[in-house]
Amino acid sequence: MADKFAIITGASTGIGFELASLAAQDGYDILVVANEPLIDAAADDFKQFGTEVRSVEADLSTLEGVDALLAATNGRQIDVLCANAGKGLGHGFLDQSVDDWRRVIDTNITGTLYLLHKVLPAMVARNDGKVLVTGSIAGYIPGSFQAVYNSSKSFIDYFTDAIRNELKEADGVTITTLKPGPVDTEFFASADMLDTSVGQSESKSDPAKVARDGWEAMKKGEASIFSGLKTKIQGVLANVTPASVLAEQHRSMAEPGSGKE
């Protein structure tokens, strides 16, 4: 058993898988979670790095799912939390079912906040711990045809800014927000966006690089990081570009059928 322990959510694929690999390589025992059976196969892969690996299949859009994850720690001190689980959703808002858009909100916002609310008090009490939360550049852009998702990431981006300030006196506890642009993961398939311009783009970021950017920033205690120069430029420009222009630009990327010639 290692002397340090990390939880990584959404770890079956994509950024979360890469974060879990980095944690294990850095000598952390890890507890990984996702809402699909593939998490067990992913856990077997992480064991190659020689630390203790446990996996749990849980739906983090529910309070019960978060409770099941925390119960799986068996009371062990959490030194690092990578709150990476997220859910995408494409198409126009009026074309989405209530169940679908609620799941995005419950996964990206409610489940994430509940997990932080449960984990942070112990870190603050001992004045030690690191948290990495996966936000997005999408949180800076009015997301036409991705409105609920982008708005949920806007919530996360600014929520982490707020609680970082609230907890500034606990200087041994750091909260880092990872803000990637489009990443080459299963996100676009699960969000039903494969026929969009952004879904078909070949310029999406490598999840391994995005994860490393976030992991290194977290280790340094940085407040946030835009993964990649292009994403950083987008973040800067978003602050000076009218919302109507940003929404129209996003429409050209995310509108169903926009990827077809």
From TrEMBL:
InterPro entries: KR_dom, NAD(P)-bd_dom_sf, Sc_DH/Rdtase_CS, SDR_fam. This is SDR family NAD(P)-dependent oxidoreductase. It holds the Pfam family adh_short. It comes from the Bacteria. The lineage of its organism: Bacteria, Pseudomonadati, Pseudomonadota, Alphaproteobacteria, Sphingomonadales. Belongs to the short-chain dehydrogenases/reductases (SDR) family. PROSITE patterns: ADH_SHORT. Gene3D superfamilies: NAD(P)-binding Rossmann-like Domain. Keywords: Oxidoreductase. Residues 4-186 form the Ketoreductase domain.
